[in-house]
Amino acid sequence: SVVAGNERVLKARLADARFFHEADRKKRLEEFVPALAGVVWQAGAGSMFDKAKRMQALAAWLAAKLGVRNPAILTAALQAKADLVTAMVGEFPTLQGTVGGLYAAASGESEDTARAIAEHYRPTGPKDEVPGTLEGCVVALADKIDHLAGHLVLEHAPSGTADPYALRRAGLGIIRILAEHGWRLPLRQAFVRAAERHEAGKDEKVQSRVGAQAVGFLRGRMEIIFAEQGFQPDEIVAALVAFDDVTLAGARLRALAVLKGRPGFRETVLALSRVTNILPKGFEATPVDPDALDAAERTLHELHLPLSRDAEALAAAGGFEALYDRLAALRPAIDAFFAAVMVNDPDAAVRQRRLSLLAEIAKTIRLLADIKALALG
Questions:
Q1: Are 120 and 143 in contact (CB under 8 A)?
Q2: Which of 30, 210, 211, 237 could disulfide-pair with 195, CB 3.0 to 4.6 Å?
Q3: CA 131 → CA 30, 87, 136, 323, distances in Å?
Q4: DSSP-derived secondary structure for 293-348
Q5: Residue 256 in contact with residue 320, Cβ under 8 Å?
Q6: pTM for the whole thing?
Q7: Among 253, 268, 283, residue whose Cα is nearest residue 369
């Protein structure tokens, strides 16, 4: 019968699994690590042993950046791929990670190490959960950041719907882990750090390219995620200004969605837009000399000065509503300034002075959002 046939197949597979398990268990998981040198990570780009060493170094850096200090992270990162050379995973490839976690525990590694190894492939898709431990999340980030950085070093960016190296999945995993923990990670710095450990990424120009490409790639993923969450296109573009931090972009977006419902928001944004819109593309500001300012310029400069000192710290802490309130308080002075002076004065020195003053304010506005992107219908 069909049932009997299935039973025979299942018993044979279970017997195989027992055989492979018993063969593997003659060694500790860490003893499999050197054999990764015989497994190619990517043609012409080193072995899985090289990747294990990169993951360990990157995980140490990430753990320090994210404040997750546990030696288990370093052990797990080095051994995470070790089960790829076990007999069990050789026969049952879908068990990668799971086997590593079980073998780590059986080898006497800590529970934190074993779980981090078992979880580090997660999330494997949009519906899969992120790793359930902080240690697992750090190792997963190290794996995914190294994966994305390495392929960008090799110029393997996805094109159209084709994504043979699963870079979109890696990008989504990075975003979800950072967002779900509210972790603050400077993305460009992380990807430059990852790229420099690849043989083809030693050149600073390559590192710079990879950092920019990775941030742009993740920005595109963020746009899709935010749209799926129901945010408006203009809010999304405005919130992704100078994007380099997943958690901060989310905080900015949520704040903008709230602020759009505030009384006077439209009028405030129109006033702030006057500041940003008048600046010529590529304008190079010069330091503002308070002694050279006329009355209208001085009033605006002195009102903005205390905010300029606090703005970066406010934005970095996610205090976007407070930053908006303080920018909104400048609105009367901005209106009075434009009523009193001609910014593009025929006198080049006067024009440079006024545009430089507005450029300082525009820099503060940019910490809130890309104000030009907001639709004010």
A1: yes
A2: 210
A3: 22, 25, 5, 35
A4: --HHHHHHHHHHHHHHHHHHHHHHTT-HHHHHHHHHTTHHHHHHHHHH--SS-SSH
A5: yes
A6: 0.91
A7: 253
